Amino acid sequence: PLLDFAVYLSFFPQLVAGPIVRATEFLPELRASRTPDRVEASRATLLIARGLVKKVVIADFIGRAIVNDAFGTPGEYSAWDVLFGIYGYAIQIYADFSGYTDMAIGLALLLGFRFPQNFDRPYAAVSVQDFWRRWHMTLSRWLRDYLYVPLGGNRSGRAATYRNLVITMGLGGLWHGAAWVFVVWGLYQGLGLAIERALSEARGEPDVEFDATDVRIRELARLHSGAEVDAWREDPTSPVPFSPLAVRRLWLGRIVTFHFVCVGWVVFFAGTVTGGGIDTAVDVFTALGSGWTQAPELLNPLVAVVIVLTIAVQFVPPLLARQLSAMFSTVPAPAMAIGVALWIMVVVALGPEGVSEFIYFQF
Question: Which domain holds residue 165?
Fold first, then answer.
């Protein structure tokens, strides 16, 4: 019905910045009967509280403490300030965007609607492909289904597959804004995906398709044979034979992927600045060419701790997070309400004065 579709188009939690919820996912939720669920309500509360912390305590703090200055006038600061400014922006955009998504999913859940997951510890990714399975997952899915697959996907040979990856990500960059900087960022991501796929094929690694929520198989697929992956899929409780080589490759993949993504974020940032362009990104990269002996002015222990802890949290096992959520749902309602109120007070106290606009609101 037209009214149902109008509700879908105007549903406020995901209207501004996602997650991208399809009509086929939303409309059945609209028609489903609902009863209040204590576990769902507690999970929604946790999501909203977590999103608030990400936005106010982490994203806004990092932005004002180091990113704005390090990216605004990079030539005035040491290379260490600029380097950690880049790391800081990676943290800021993750905390800002995933924080909004957490709150949107939580608000929808309070109203009885279940939205798809949009982030899955992206900075724990072991490859560029893995990163895009974890970052803005609903956009990645949309790009795959409505651009990559219609272009031919991987069905027309290797060269066509590489071309389709680059075109898809280039158009994905354009989705963020009608500026060449975003196109460059998208093409950079597409080239990374294409080169990574070419290297994987040259090494004869298995082209494994698997559920994006199966973290263990996803991280190990590139390190072991297809037969071993199939065995773990059939018996998820079986022990994983981590060899020292596999562990080294796993962490090397994570380090390389994180820095690849960080380089892209510098270009992306240039597109978010009024009047900015590729020159803004060039200035940041140029500042890394000297000043390593200069004492840092912006980098301090608190900034470093926030950056390191936010990255470290990416490696918390999902099972532990689910267990903590389940424990929270058993707390009596009055105690939960008091705890949430105290949590909000702490967030307001720890956060910087005033709250900046969400980065993704401009897209």
Answer: 2-204+242-362
